[in-house]
């Protein structure tokens, strides 16, 4: 059964809007940042990672965003192009902004953190004028990520993209992607996340991210109550991720699907959510049953957390299928 109206006539499968950054992942793992001296540079930023994941899975993918007018910005654009991603709407910001950097600290397979350098970053300079209505009209699916709502003018640009998507029947997926350090206040964060979520068809987030959105609601919701809230707006599917405890998906039509995980030789925990999103959205776009989409998301996540990078480790379809085959009895999504 089809949950979402992906318009097969549209030439682009997937367009992401928002953050294009750099990850600098510690080479000397299992030690604190203070003792780390070398890093490997990768393209990063949650929506960039998801777009790369979708392109690796064979989807015709584009990106709307701003990069700094520097070597890092050019590195990002080149990497996207090399991965077959359309960069016609990736704008070089000329205001003197810089590329956002995420230094990743890998203290142990379960104790990882990210040190972000995000002052005056190019990605948050995205303007409403950068949002091309026709480009969004030509996409089956638009991905927005919450961090792009943290500041103007990027915030207004995202809301405009949302309006264009709704006007033209482009399915909108919201990856909550909550990064506290990008925001000024808890109130502001919850307000803008909720305003955006009202307009989205699919909402994907961790329990903690949904808790942040519900902070001022005066009631504590369980996963099902959280999902139901969004079905009164535009959502058809809500996915709540629980790290190593898997994920749970709810549909507006009343189904619940529990997704378990695959084994992983964990190098670091970040990248799980982005790779899960790519595998899951790919499945939705192919009209698969939701448990199968969740299985591909979980497999992609295990592959990425078993690797050093997020973007560069995004698997192809063949890699996911081979991985699932190898771990056939290790995971299942059940109704
Ligand atoms: N330790 C783990 N082992 C195997 N799979 C994991 C592990 N942690 C996360 N995953 C997979 O990645 C998905 C998303 O992870 P989660 O940590 O909840 O998201 P995020 O990275 O956005 O915080 C999970 O639902 C699960 O499928
Ligand atoms: O999103 C960023 O700016 C950093 C990412 O590239 C990073 O590697 C990461 O945190 C991935 O996020 P996750 O998939 O939600 O763990």
Automatic annotation (TrEMBL):
Where are the membrane-spanning stretches?
A: none
EC number(s) on file: 2.7.1.92
**Does this entry carry the keyword ATP-binding?**
yes
Its UniProt pathway annotation is: Polyol metabolism; myo-inositol degradation into acetyl-CoA; acetyl-CoA from myo-inositol: step 5/7
Q: What is known about what this protein does?
A: Catalyzes the phosphorylation of 5-dehydro-2-deoxy-D-gluconate (2-deoxy-5-keto-D-gluconate or DKG) to 6-phospho-5-dehydro-2-deoxy-D-gluconate (DKGP).
Return the similarity comment: Belongs to the carbohydrate kinase PfkB family.
Protein name (record):
5-dehydro-2-deoxygluconokinase
